[in-house]
Amino acid sequence: MVHRPRTLILVSLAAGLVFVLARVLYRVVFGGAASGTTLLPSFPRVQLSGPFSHITLFGPVTLEGIAHAALSAVPFALVIIATGALVALFDPRALVVLAPRLRVGSSLVLAAGLAVSTFPAIVPSVSRARYISRLRGIKPGVRSLVSVLELTLEKALGTAVALESRGIRGHKFSVEPGLPAKPGPAVTLVEFSVPGRISRPLSATIDLSARILLTGATGSGKTTLLQAIAGVLELRGETGSRGTLHRGVAARGVAYLPHDPRAIFLTSRVVDDAALGLIARGHGRDDARSAASKALEAAGLGGLADRDPSTLSSGEAALAALCVLVVTEPSLLLLDEPLSALDEDHRAEFLSTLEDYASTSDVAIVVTDHPRHGFLPNGFDAWQIGEQGLVPGRFISAPSFPKRTAATLPEPDKVLVVQGLSIAFADRSVLKSVSLEVRRGQTVLITGENGAGKSTLLESIATGQNSRAPHDSRALIDCTPQERVGTAALVPSEPSSLFLCSSVAEELALADKVARVPQGFTALTFESLLSGWTEALGTTHPRDLSRGQQACLAIAVQMSHKPAVVLLDEPTRGLDEAAEVAFAEVVGCVVETGTAVVIAAHHRDAGSLIASRVLRLEAGQLIQDPVKAVVA
């Protein structure tokens, strides 16, 4: 979240004005604006009956009464405006850095900083909720409000997780009876399971010097296991786990990188985030910032030190987040699918950084990933989680997809024509006169590096505007002309943002209702996408699904509209091989009905099995990919 003083001041002024107007309206409606002699047009008195007979509505209205009502609201309005101005002129996230240095009242200052920091985040959350409602074809209303509240709660939980990773907490891990006082394993699992999330009991020992790559199918419990070890499940209040999980390291010694690396950042500068963990451990602010700067320089990230984390690309955020965590020298480092959102160059850079760190430090490391990437870092052992529990020494290599030969078919009708689409954010041009034609039943794969503009292109096609444009950046969209034929349905790169209901079953039913398709239609699509469907998933909250399961649900929901064009932004991120094959089969069936599909991905494998055209977005322009996937 970028700190934008102008926007915050305008919002606080508007809120103060609304409060004054509401106060005046209240006085008019309930007959409290009659003091004075200068009469204004009024409504006749209305005496309510029954239990409300003591209430009289409307009545005489005077100029003096209106003025008195407005003046009585001014002190409260000034408090609202002053609070907004304070937040605008002073970034409250700085309190997060200050809190660990205080000997008295640190928890209070930290809580105040986090609470006030939430205020600026509400505005973009509301905008995002309205945007998602448009994508789903639902009028903004109560469901949008629920979405805003859930996003706020997720932000609060993410903040708690980020604090845990820095050792700033009031929460402490429970110490299991029998935990050895002398150095022992970093983690010991004895018949450990989480009903509905880790079905098979897990028993294993992770040594203090372990280097583990943990793979497994979508929904097998990789993320849940890391969250349990990191203490995140305890923060969520999920205490229904069974068996035993011993942590042989101090709570401050556990560093956890969630699936979205941006979630761990708490301040407005990368260097302050890197210094935060050191400050929490007693280092002076200047010494901590100096050490953090040196760590960023050593990792080749010196240019990111003064950047706001919200402005980083996916690759930059992953590398910066890793540096932020390791600067505190943890005893156990947990990384949840850190490669899934990275292009090939950033993936290689991240792996190189991780291998260098592992070879020069005494730390246990557990990295989760799907074997699709086909990598095993030097010095790491492969483990697999699945039907047999947690099995060391198991690694499934990425599948080799068969190539298909091209077939000569008559050219179908065009369903999407984009010509001269240009988008710029402030002084940076993202898309430069992009043109694209998509025909009925065609599948187009658009590749490109992180930050190339793939998501921007898809969002612009779907909505005619770019939802990520900062309010004060004056995003420029010039499309001359852009022709849309039929309806374009977008699945964004963060599929959880599409969800509006409290259970998977409700989400599927809502999709059927909005798309006006037979009941159960969307559920069938979801089941065909997801291997390992169980009835228990129907009662699960969509945001509690694994990343891969969320992707399957979002794709099913948007496909229920049977649109002319389906736009999929990184659709296979978080999916295992079986789910990828199922996804390809479903997309193939959709294409056979005449629906066109446009897929944006940072690697070719995501859609090479089904793509009839492969394009690359580079330097703001679409070009033919030199390595083309040829599909019938």
TrEMBL record:
InterPro entries, A to Z: AAA+_ATPase, ABC/ECF_trnsptr_transmembrane, ABC_transporter-like_ATP-bd, ABC_transporter-like_CS, ECF_ABC_transporter_ATP-bd, P-loop_NTPase
Residues in coiled coil: none
Record's subcellular location: Membrane
Membrane topology: Multi-pass membrane protein
Keyword list, A-Z: ATP-binding, Membrane, Nucleotide-binding, Transmembrane, Transmembrane helix, Transport
Entry's Gene Ontology cellular component terms: ATP-binding cassette (ABC) transporter complex
All residue ranges annotated as the ABC transporter domain in the record: 184-413, 416-631
Membrane-traversing stretches: 66-90, 102-123
Molecular function (Gene Ontology), one example: ATP hydrolysis activity
Stored Pfam families: ABC_tran
Major subcellular location class: membrane
Name this protein carries in UniProt: Unannotated protein
